């Protein structure tokens, strides 16, 4: 008997230890973790620099209210916006909270309420973020949603141009839909968003909760497009496993979030910020980002080599990759991969998502490829 709500379809084993890309369950069985806690532990498990940061900060100060100045937040904010067109940061504790802040900021700044969002998007589980999410399975059963979210097909520039009007506060999107199936924004669609930005005052909110902090080979995924978002939300990879989220915004938004308009008790506390600082010190560096791109190329080539059949599709960017199985449901394969020692996560029903730590080695990628080959080419997959 479990005293937990059964709101997760948990896998039938518990991971109790990890180092780098490897994790171990209660029986001592070893797995390669190609989930990274869903794009969270980007520097690997028990990274010594992060362990050190937590230890040092935990002896000094864990928490102090946002009523006081925060040198740690100042430094982290400056590091996150450096060399970008963005100017200011606000810190919270999760992706959903970051998106709430983004939605509130966009509405208050524009004085408008309509926000265009997309089918198969995922923005989180709070009311605003849930209302922005383009998936019925996330929204059903919870009663009236926050109003004025308009859901359009993703990557449909014609539909977007028709819907973006003078009532529109913002367009909110993921640069690569994560939960929705590892679907990247197309060049044409990015261009359409760019054009709307040039000709209207509609804001663009990039939900980089999953794609941000080096996951796709650049600091943020929007840097690989022509889109210059007014607001960027982030979380998952930012704390390397310690909960922290936040938004970045452009100069023009500064006066909208003035004193008393928005806040959080825990957001950006010194412990969280010390970890996030360590994370970006490692990741926001050309050499590191270059290594992510190299590993990505290596991984993509190996996947294409291992699965040459055109039924297989390799999607995504950087180390946020998806392997589609020609429309077949992936759930039994994900379970079989667990069994074989490779942890992966489904992206929608049809795609296996591969999110190794950004510190993964080529040898570990080779090992993962061998496990994938063994499992996906086995004739018989036993359902869990
Ligand atoms: C995970 C995710 C969220 C929600 O983040 P939480 O920390 O679970 O609230 C929002 N947007 C995207 C794109 C995500 O991948």
UniProtKB/TrEMBL annotation:
Residues where N(2)-acetyl-L-ornithine binds: 125, 264
Cofactors demanded by this protein: pyridoxal 5'-phosphate
Gene3D superfamilies, per database record: Aspartate Aminotransferase, domain 1 (3.90.1150.10), Type I PLP-dependent aspartate aminotransferase-like (Major domain) (3.40.640.10)
The organism's place on the tree of life at top rank: Bacteria
MF terms in GO: N2-acetyl-L-ornithine:2-oxoglutarate 5-aminotransferase activity
UniProt keyword terms in alphabetical order: Amino-acid biosynthesis, Aminotransferase, Arginine biosynthesis, Cytoplasm, Pyridoxal phosphate, Transferase
Predominant location category: cytoplasm
Catalyzed chemical reaction(s): N(2)-acetyl-L-ornithine + 2-oxoglutarate = N-acetyl-L-glutamate 5-semialdehyde + L-glutamate
Binding site for pyridoxal 5'-phosphate: 95-96, 122, 207-210, 265
InterPro entries: AcOrn/SuccOrn_fam, Aminotrans_3, Class-III_PLP-dep_AT, PyrdxlP-dep_Trfase, PyrdxlP-dep_Trfase_major, PyrdxlP-dep_Trfase_small
Enzyme Commission (EC) number: 2.6.1.11
Pathway: Amino-acid biosynthesis; L-arginine biosynthesis; N(2)-acetyl-L-ornithine from L-glutamate: step 4/4
Cellular localisation: Cytoplasm
Free-text remark on how the cofactor is bound: Binds 1 pyridoxal phosphate per subunit.
Note: May also have succinyldiaminopimelate aminotransferase activity, thus carrying out the corresponding step in lysine biosynthesis.
Entry similarity comment: Belongs to the class-III pyridoxal-phosphate-dependent aminotransferase family. ArgD subfamily.
Quaternary structure annotation from Swiss-Prot or TrEMBL: Homodimer.
NCBIfam families: argD (TIGR00707), PRK01278.1 (NF002325), PRK02936.1 (NF002797)
The protein, known as: Acetylornithine aminotransferase
The species this protein was found in: Solibacillus merdavium
